Amino acid sequence: ADRNDFALLFSGLLTLEVSILLLTQEWARSALVKRFNSLAIPAGLFLLTCLAIGWAATPFGPNGSHPIWTYVHTVPAIAIARSAVFIGLVKLCGLACTFVLGWLIASSDSRARYFFKVIVVAMTIYGLWALLAHASPALKFGVYNAFQGDRLSASLQSANTAGTLFAASFVLALCLFFE
């Protein structure tokens, strides 16, 4: 959450993934066309949210722009950090791409079940690697600074984040087991 560089990288990758999916896969385009009506309201609300957030980068607030902009010779804005507004918008668009990607994958029950199994297997492999890398430092593959010394943090820099991820993965694995 604190790393804007990773967030922007993954937002760009998600945008690229959705674009490639829509450009190369007929099933994705047909799912988007057939089910577009069910996406219209969330898309409209998302656009309204983006406009409300983007408004902070303009000088057209109830009290005008922030007074700090009078000392700088540039276009004023309501927000002090205009770049933070744009970074937040890009991260929000990455989240929207994640939503659209999941929505497209879930358009087919068999495709959704397949991706569910892939996610459970991938998280199981990641969890086993994290456990083995915690026990044997030789398996950390150059990500030494990301690990906490006495807690199972995987490569996530926080044992709490890793615990949440592994707990959610365990619940998904139980769902797959009892399906």
The total count of strands amounts to 0
Shape type: flat
> What proportion of the residues is helical, as a percent range?
55-70%
Instruction: Give helix and strand order, one letter per element, not per position.
Output: HHHHHH
Explain what this protein looks like in three dimensions.
With 179 residues, this protein is mostly helical. Helix content is 66%, strand content 0%. α5 crosses α6. It is flat and about 60 Å long.
Features:
0% strand; 6 helices; 66% helix; 179 residues; mainly alpha
Task: List the SSEs and their pairings.
Blueprint: H1 4-24, H2 26-34, H3 36-54, H4 82-105, H5 109-135, H6 159-177
Helix pairs in contact: 1-4, 3-4, 5-6
In brief:
This protein has about 180 residues and is mainly α. It is built from 6 helices and no strands. About 65% of the residues lie in helices and about 0% in strands.
